[in-house]
Write a structure and sequence with these properties.
Elements (H helix, E strand, L loop, with lengths): L2 H24 L7 E3 L2 E3 L3 E3 L14 H9 L9 E8 L16 H16 L4 E6 L17 E2 L8 E6 L2 E6 L4 E2 L5 H17 L4 E5 L5 H6 L14 H4 L1 H14 L4 E5 L13 H12 L6 E5 L18 H10 L5 E5 L4 H9 L4 E4 L1 H5 L3 H6 L30
Parallel strand pairs: 3-4, 3-14, 4-5, 5-10, 6-9, 10-11, 11-12, 12-13, 13-14
Antiparallel strand pairs: 1-2, 7-8
Bound molecules: 2-Phenylacrylic acid.
The site of 2-Phenylacrylic acid has 7 residues, from loops.
Length: 400
């Protein structure tokens, strides 16, 4: 082989190996640390918020502490746990036996949960929830109608539990919120964020997804208001902006996240042009110095390629809108992720991946992801309500 050719090949090999090293350096994996605002996370594996209806009287309890602690060690479980959706007020309740965070008693009830998670070296944020119209009169103060941006009933169901037996029940007809009531609800979010910190949480996530109150304001089909909170995109996003401003002022942006679901049809959420709407939301979020933005892709818990309106949603453009507005928070994605899909999302710019049902059935999900399974199968019959069965009794690898 002439010397020149040998030299050329050597250079080529050297270049290839430099490229490989560079790729290895920039390739993200699920098992490495991630700084999300003020949250120092040991891994990129997040436990998604999961409603489990095991908090009678809206109070957290010892069984819940055990459930979260089982999933809290980042070496085997989650780098970050997001709690089940937690009501900011009695009016914000829409399901039987879901927890709250509006009273001193509720704050106290959550403290053993956060302590148990921290004892495992874990991190936990609380998801703050107002269901709006996705409720039932039997769950509301004085059995009144639930509240919503407009008096439009959702084609949706809620979970009611009687004598320990869960059943799905159509949601009740809501009444439209008076303009004068809105500041009170924003104040409830602010207080809930403060309470979450008092309860020992590392931060909060505002639930702005899945057709609940914030999402009801965002979408044209559930918001027919003719005042400053309805009509234009600017107006429909006003409530979200006020809520996010309040919570970030109260506890600092670096301890706050937000969950959105731009195209989900969950709970009758519907809007003909989600792209413009959510890019506007993302641009607003940019300067808030958030810990993270959590996006559900497609239809919550179902098809990832679901779309609303005529065109498929451009998630890359959503991220660009956020970053161009100065957003530096971690970019968290969710919906139907497995190990391969997670790897590819991380290498296309995601920072954190939230796993839902997989965490119900696999307390040691990180261990299983690391060795590529096997995975326990989640049992739907025990998702909502009940006790230990289907909650704290899924086996870990070491004891299975
Ligand atoms: C399932 C059952 C009840 C509530 C959500 C909070 O979809 C929920 C929820 C999910 O975000």
């Amino acid at each position: 082989m002439p010397n020149e050719t040998a030299a050329a090949i050597e250079i080529q090999i050297a270049n290839q190996s430099a490229e490989k090293n560079r790729m290895l350096c920039v390739m993200k994996n699920l098992f490495e640390p991630c700084q999300a605002g003020q949250l120092q996370l040991a891994t990129r594996i997040v436990m998604a918020p999961l409603t489990r209806n095991r908090a009678p009287h809206a109070l957290a309890n010892a069984l819940m502490a055990e459930y979260y602690a089982q999933r809290a060690n980042p070496a085997t479980g989650a780098g970050l746990i997001i709690t089940e959706a937690t009501a900011i007020s009695h009016q914000g309740q829409g399901y039987s036996d879901v927890p709250g965070i509006w009273s001193a008693e509720q704050v106290k009830a959550w403290q053993p949960v956060t302590a148990a998670v921290h004892a495992q070296g874990g991190k936990i944020v609380m998801q703050l929830w107002h269901v709006g119209r996705i409720s039932h009169t039997s769950l509301q103060p004085n059995n009144q109608a639930p509240v919503a941006p407009s008096a439009i009933v959702a084609k949706s169901k809620t979970v009611l539990i009687e004598n320990g037996v869960p059943r799905f029940e159509p949601t009740s007809m809501p009444r439209a919120l008076e303009l004068t009531e809105i500041p009170g609800i924003v104040a409830d979010y602010r207080q809930a964020a403060k309470n979450a910190i008092l309860a020992g949480f590392d931060g909060i996530e505002v639930h702005a997804a899945n057709g609940y109150l914030v999402d009801q304001f965002l979408r044209a089909d559930s918001n027919h208001r003719q005042d400053a909170y309805g009509g234009s995109i600017e107006n429909r996003t006003r409530f979200l902006k006020e809520v996010m401003t309040a919570v970030t002022q109260e506890i600092g942006g670096g301890r706050c996240g937000i969950r959105i679901s731009p195209v989900t049809p969950a709970n009758d959420a519907s809007d003909a042009s989600p792209q413009k709407l959510f890019e506007h939301v993302a641009a607003f979020l940019g300067p808030l110095n958030l810990a993270y933005v959590h996006t559900i892709e497609g239809s919550t818990g179902a098809a990832r390629d679901y779309q609303q309106g005529e065109t498929s949603f451009d998630y890359a453009a959503l991220k660009t809108a956020y970053q161009q507005a100065g957003g530096q928070g971690a970019w968290m994605l969710n919906n139907g992720y497995d190990s391969e899909l997670a790897k590819s999302a991380l290498n296309q710019g995601a920072d954190l991946i939230a796993f839902g049902k997989a965490f119900i059935a696999n307390p040691d999900l990180a261990s299983r992801l690391r060795q590529n399974g096997p995975y326990n199968t989640p049992e739907r019959a025990t998702f909502y309500g009940g006790g230990e069965k289907g909650y704290t009794d899924y086996p870990s690898l070491s004891i299975s």
